[in-house]
Amino acid sequence: MKKTLALALAASTALSTGAFAQEITEFRIGILGGENAQDRMNSYQCLADFTTEALGVETKLFAPADYNGVIQGLLGGTIDMAWLGASSYAATFLQDPDAVEPVLIKVNLDGSVGYHSIGFARVDSGVTSLDDMQGKVFGFGDPNSTSGYLIPSIEIPQYKDGITMESGEYFGEVKFTGGHEQTIVAVNNGDIDGGVTWADGQGNWEDGYNSGALRKAVDAGLVDMNDMVQIWKSNVIPEGPVVLRQALPDDVKATMVALVDGLYEADPECAYGVAAGDTLGFQPVTHAMYESIVAARQSVIGN
């Protein structure tokens, strides 16, 4: 590792790994969907290694097939930490406000802490805006995704009278693909005509912007952005929080906050993988950032 981040943390907190071992026997990190499970695990392995060194216990990574797998793991106490989307955090909070606490938020290269839901299609489809999507197949990622469902389901109907999220009303068919990567691949392959995913909206389109699912897809060689066209862009959405299970020992929580907060300075390559692209790292956040998302989810989905 480029710096022995975990050892520095242990020294700064004056706590030994043995103290942690007496309180917890392992630490479990959940990873939301967005790309295939093995790629998600690979991106987070460096964080797992840092965590094992910092806490002195085995760190396990979990990459469930859908967002709800991480949500239920946090609610059930089988996952200790995760980087959630805002809607997934809202879902967790609405089911049990004492289950997790938001502690950190990703920072973009310009210092902002927001991102966008991006609607896109293939250039050769002839679709250039949502006006061209009438009667065509439109793809969402996951019902618990902020950019892949919640925000589009609110903002896209505001774009034009008559647009709904029901198949056969404006769109010929509305499909859930299962995740951001699946949506990108489905559009690229022509299986659906258009879809939504997430990106910070900064940098160059041909790079998949600076961070987000499009950037990860470009890095993985899954898509050439020159074959794609942006057809819609949401208002700014607050980045989802890194959350910790509230029942964890306070010293464990403090160490993990310091570890993730210092990840970019310690190992920019690791931070790139964890944050899905270029970033300045993470900064503290509280529940107040997500009150509007909680309200939106409650009104649209219920919980």
From TrEMBL:
InterPro entries named in the record: PhnD (IPR005770), Phosphnate-bd (IPR017797)
GO CC terms of this entry: ATP-binding cassette (ABC) transporter complex
**Family as reported in the entry's similarity comment:** Belongs to the phosphate/phosphite/phosphonate binding protein family.
As given in the record, the signal peptide range reads 1-21
Q: Which SUPFAM superfamilies match?
A: Periplasmic binding protein-like II
Q: Which PANTHER family match?
A: PHOSPHONATES-BINDING PERIPLASMIC PROTEIN
Any idea what this protein is called?
A: Phosphate-import protein PhnD
Mind listing the GO biological process terms from this record? organic phosphonate transport; transmembrane transport
Q: What keywords are annotated for this sequence in UniProt?
A: Signal
Query: Signal as a keyword?
Result: yes
